[in-house]
Design goal:
Length: about 350
């Protein structure tokens, strides 16, 4: 069989491009252009597969205009850039990249929590600006991590990694809220206690958001929820933009409704709410929670593994809508015209 055609929607490690080129006719984007929907559709013409990242939206319009597409492999654990129902209807498989990023992302969630509570970036800006002239008793005094109450909203693999670090590394009391409680064995291992969302907001000294985005969790943390938190609390979001109402958070930071926030994800990123950019009591990072080199490489290999497995008739590693497989695995790939 001729090689299938693959679009790499964003730049990726050269060794991944080389690996994929052994199995596919590859159209790459090593210039790392960020395409509009119309450009993405144009690039997808004649492609059987796409290697996507969280910014590449695959929705009903893209699918309707891309009849040859069979599979999109996301180099991200989150897949809210996929309209999975539309993909399933169109018979297009989606895969994501879970597990390989769990520990790296939990490390980062903890780093962001510590930087926020201990005011690390704020104090560094002060120092670099030449404002440090003397010691004083309350200079950048922040909140303690050890022994405090760590709240986690969304207790999947990454949430559990953060809980483990908090309970076992820092002697924190861990409380969490999730769609469903963990088993008693896992709770005991993590020393974590299930509470209502209301109790989580009210009791957490530090609240970390790690839940997947879907429209049903849009603005899960807004003005009303922020008002229920302790005025000394920190909020950390390593989940997705849109889970927090950024305008309400900017207001809450300005009013000191809560003490501080650490944010890796934003509504409408890479644009940020100007109130967040203005606030001193916020640590801002550009969506890098999984960004260690070994982990990003492992995520890219997992996306590639899925693509290669699919076209070799082997089981997919991390399918999101495996029901599609029973429908189309035997359908022949249409030969494209106009491609090498
Ligand atoms: C990053 O945000 C991911 O979903 O992997």
């Amino acid at each position: 069989m001729n090689k299938p055609h693959l679009l790499l929607a964003r730049a990726v490690f050269p060794e991944i491009v080389d690996r994929l080129a052994q199995h596919f006719h590859v159209v790459s984007n090593q210039a790392d252009e960020v395409w509009t929907q119309a450009q993405l559709i144009a690039k997808l013409q004649g492609q059987h597969a796409a290697f996507t990242t969280g910014g590449d939206r695959i929705d009903g319009d893209v699918l309707a205009a891309s009849p040859d597409l069979r599979i999109c492999a996301n180099m991200a654990v989150g897949y809210n850039n996929f309209d999975l129902e539309a993909m399933t209807r169109a018979g297009v498989l989606g895969t994501n990249a879970p597990d390989v990023l769990t520990e790296t992302t939990a490390d980062f969630g903890f780093a962001l929590l510590m930087a926020t509570a201990r005011r690390i970036t704020e104090s560094e800006h002060f120092l670099r600006a030449g404002q440090w002239t003397k010691w004083s008793y309350d200079l950048f005094a922040g909140a303690d991590i050890h022994g405090s109450t760590l709240g986690i909203l969304g207790m999947g693999r990454i949430g559990q990694g953060i809980a483990r670090r908090g309970a076992h590394g820092f002697g924190m009391q861990v409380i969490y809220h999730n769609r469903s409680p963990l088993t008693p064995e896992i709770e005991a291992d993590l020393k974590a206690r299930y509470v209502s969302k209301q109790d989580l907001l009210a009791q957490a000294d530090h609240l970390v958001l790690v839940l997947p985005y879907s429209p049903s969790v849009h603005h899960t943390i807004g003005a009303a929820e922020l008002a229920c938190m302790k005025p000394t609390a920190t909020l950390v979001n390593i989940a997705r933009g849109g889970i927090v109402d950024d305008a309400a958070l900017a207001q809450a930071l300005a009013n000191r409704t809560i003490a501080a926030a650490g944010l890796d994800v934003f509504e409408g990123e890479p644009q940020l709410h100007p109130g967040l950019l203005r606030a001193a009591n916020v640590v801002l990072t550009p969506h890098i929670a999984s960004a260690s080199l070994p982990t990003r490489l492992a995520m890219a290999h997992l996306a590639a593994d899925n693509l290669i497995a699919y076209f070799s008739g082997k089981p997919l590693l991390t399918p999101l809508n495996p029901e599609v497989l029973s429908r189309d695995l035997t359908a022949p790939i249409r030969e494209n015209s106009g491609h090498a």
